[in-house]
Amino acid sequence: MSADKSLVSKYITIFLVVSGYWIVSISTVFVNKTLLSNINLEAPMFIALSQTLITALICYLKKVLSATYPSTIKFPEIDVWDRYTMKTVLPLSVLFTSMIATNNLCLKYASVAYYYIGRSLTTIFNVVFTYLILGEKTSKRCIMCCAVIISGFWLGVDQENLAGSLSVAGFVFGILGSLSLSLYSIFTKRVLPKLNGEIWALTYANNVYASVMLVPIMIVNRELPELYNYSGLSDRYFWLILAAGGVCGLMIGFFTTLQIKYTSALTHNISGTAKACAQTVLATFWYNEAKSFLWWSSNIIVLMGSACYTWIKQRDMERRHRERPAYEKV
């Protein structure tokens, strides 16, 4: 009975984590789209910097409060400028920064509806990097599912092109975003145990390092003159939506790490793909976008390919577990 309760508790936790990830992630995309496209400011790296900086400040505040009220507020002990912490987390933070930057640039140059198709290659990259980095081979059936996903991706790109709404920059940054997310998911599983599984510690370090790295990127991208000449800097709405984006950045980073911790890099990628499908439907209604039958077909093809990949991958993992010697299962 206790084992059954433990299993039910585990599934409830996973359900709540995945649901939280969906809600926060979809909200983040719409808030970021407002920041990147609905205000007259050409500074996507500044938007990313504001999010990582706000997240880092919130984490620092919680860290200070935990030292003052240790019995009430908990925050893991971590020194972000410690040599061990930097050596452990900094490579992951490079991927984290790349993921944020490419996501923002993809959203800036593409619609929210296309964002799903543009980011659908995450599973493909996950298969490639899992083999190259971890040495894990993928079954032929999974590779066939990947071919289905790629065909859906290209059909969606073709339909965007025919409709005259395809952005080359959005296309490129969508692919780079998928690549960054895949690598980030894989390496998070490696880095998190080195921080004793402390998600807040990883969130804090990632956002501090990302804030530092985004400053020179923002300067190279020539965003300082754009900010200086922006007339809306005194607008309350601008700072309100910017703060909302920062809070969303904190929550999405937290729930992303939480989902990877309680599931796997593969499940996180598939969850992100399914979430993006729901996000696409919402976006077409929200922005009143009319899409063709073949465009919707591309979304369905990607979703079905991803779902089949997940099902086959899960069965392969269960089969390998049954075939392992008994002493390895202990």
Automatic annotation (TrEMBL):
Record field: transmembrane: 12-31, 43-61, 113-134, 163-187, 199-217, 237-258, 270-287, 293-312
Phosphoprotein is among the record's keywords: no
Keywords, comma-separated and alphabetical: Membrane, Transmembrane, Transmembrane helix
Secretion signal, residue range per the UniProt entry: none
Membrane topology designation: Multi-pass membrane protein
Superkingdom as given in the UniProt entry: Eukaryota
Compartment(s) of residence: Membrane
Domain named Sugar phosphate transporter: residues: 15-309
Major subcellular location class: membrane
Xref: Pfam families: TPT
Keyword Lipid biosynthesis: no
One annotated Gene Ontology cellular component of this protein: membrane
Name this polypeptide is given: Sugar phosphate transporter domain-containing protein
Organism: Exocentrus adspersus
Lineage of producing organism: Eukaryota, Metazoa, Ecdysozoa, Arthropoda, Hexapoda
